[in-house]
Each structure stands twice: as structure tokens, then as C-alpha cells.
Amino acid sequence: MSHLLRNTPVLLFATGCVALAGCGALDRLAVRTDRLEQEIADLHQAQQRLDSRLDEIQIALTTLQARLSEAGPAARPVATASPARPAAASARPAPAPADEKPVVLKLSGREPKSGEGSLRLEPEVSAPDQGGTVEIGLDAQAIVAQFQEGLGLYRGNQLDRARDALETFARRFPEHELTPEAVFFGAQARLQLGDTAEATRRFGEVASRFPKSSRAAEALLMLARCQERLGQAERARSTYLQLVDAYPLSAEASEANRRLSMIR
């Protein structure tokens, strides 16, 4: 009994240490739980934004297809070529009707004004320039259809095929105004397939090549999230700050501020 009494202070001290250690572990667990809950909430919001954006694009593309159909045979060209050299009279093609003008597919990549909706896709009619240059190439409807095919594959969760189709579109039509969307959703497909490193590069491409696109802020947000996944905390922090600075009034900037508070 006397031996037990002599060791009571030691036992009490040890018990206290265990209790304190347990409290510290619980505190750390609570912090991790809070972060995981925030991660889930952020992912849920990102998925909602993505679904909403896909719906908007589909509606806009359907409207564009209808307008191009109404334009009829004039809705042909998008690529520009120099005028051909004069050939023999017998080899010259029949002249086009005077009232037929080529159509250039013009899709606005800016943020929409109030009341315009979220995405505007409009065909713009233009005549040959003074040098005689005319626009030739794939039918504008066919080009839009190629993008729609890739987007449909993505929505159908056929990620391998969607990635290939969207990246092919972006390579074939690097200056097309649907290209930011193609690169972005191609990156999303890669991310969902587990190719985080390449998805990171492609999200960065959207942000750097198309800073005025309505997709730019979201691309920066996804870039930073990918950098976090890759353990690049400082790069992610820098990207979040870039997003907040470039697009301070966007929903993505609000999320970036939340993420910054978690990685400091």
C-alpha cells in the first residue's frame, strides 16, 4: 500500500499526459473532419457548376445549330485561304450568286451582360475582303457538331473517348471560340480518369490562352485544386491569389478565398 501511495503522483502525471494526448488527438481529428467536410462541400458546388454549365452550353449549341440551318448554304466556311491563281476560262468554276455571303462562326467568349444569359453563340456573316480572300473549309454546322459529339461523350461518362474527341477538336481548331470549352472539358475528363498532372497543365492552358473566356476563372480554380492534389501547396496558394486578383467578383474567387484560409 505504501509503495502504491509513493507512486500515486507518477500515476496521476501519466494519466494526465494520456488525457492531454487524447485531447490533442481529438482536436487534430476535429480539424481534419472539418477540412474533409469543406472538401466535400466544395466538390459538390463544383459539380453543380459543371452540370449547370453543361446545360447552358447544350442550349446555346442547339440555338446556334438552328440559326445556322436557317442560314442555309451560306453557312459554310471558317478557315481562311488566299485567292486561287487565275486558271483557264474553261476551268473556272461558275460564279457564286451575288447575294450569297460566307458565314464565319463567331462565338462570344466574354462574360455576358445582364439579361443576355450565360452563353451567347451567334453566327456572324462576313463578305470576302478587298484582296479577294474568301473563307473556305468545313461547314460551320459540322464543326459545332464535332464539339457536340465530344461534349456528349463527356456527359455520357465515356471519358476516354470524350478526352480524345475534345482534344482533337482543340488541335484542329485552335482559334475557334469553342476551343476553351473543349480544352476545359478535356482536362476534366483527364482529371476524372486520374491523370492529374496532365489535367493540371491543360487547366493552366485555358487560363493562360483564353483569359477573357467565361471559362477562365473556373480553369484557375481547377488548376489550384489539382496543384493541391499534387502536394504543391505554394503553387496552389499562388494560383488562388491570381484568381482572386483577376476575377474578384466571381463565385470562383469566393471559393479561392476559402481554400486560402485552409492552406495557410
Would you give an account of this structure?
The chain has 264 residues and is mainly alpha-helical. The chain has helices spanning 2-6, 8-71, 140-155, 159-172, 179-192, 196-209, 216-229, 233-246, 251-263; strands at residues 79-81, 103-107, 121-125, 134-136. The strands form two sheets. A two-stranded antiparallel sheet has the order 1-4. A two-stranded antiparallel sheet has the order 2-3. Helix 2 (8-71) runs antiparallel to helix 3 (140-155) and helix 5 (179-192) runs antiparallel to helix 6. It is elongated. The model is unreliable at 74-118 and 122-136 (pLDDT under 50).
Helix/strand layout:
Blueprint: H1 2-6, H2 8-71, E1 79-81, E2 103-107, E3 121-125, E4 134-136, H3 140-155, H4 159-172, H5 179-192, H6 196-209, H7 216-229, H8 233-246, H9 251-263
Helix pairs in contact: 2-3, 3-4, 3-5, 4-5, 5-6, 6-7, 7-8, 8-9
Question: Which features does this protein show?
Answer:
two-stranded antiparallel ribbon, 264 residues, 9 helices
Brief write-up:
This protein has 264 residues and is mostly helical.
Compute the number of strand runs: 4
Q: Give the amount of beta strand, in percent.
A: 5-15%
Order of helices and strands: HHEEEEHHHHHHH
Mean pLDDT: 73
What is the terminal separation in angstroms?
53 Å
Summarize the biggest pleated sheet.
Answer: 2 strands, antiparallel
Regions with little confidence, pLDDT below 50 for 5+ residues = 74-118, 122-136
Helix content: 55-70%
Q: What is Rg?
A: 28 Å
Q: What general outline do the C-alpha atoms trace?
A: elongated
Total count of helical runs of at least 4 residues? 9
Strand order, sheet with most strands: 1-4
Q: Which secondary-structure class do the elements indicate?
A: mainly alpha
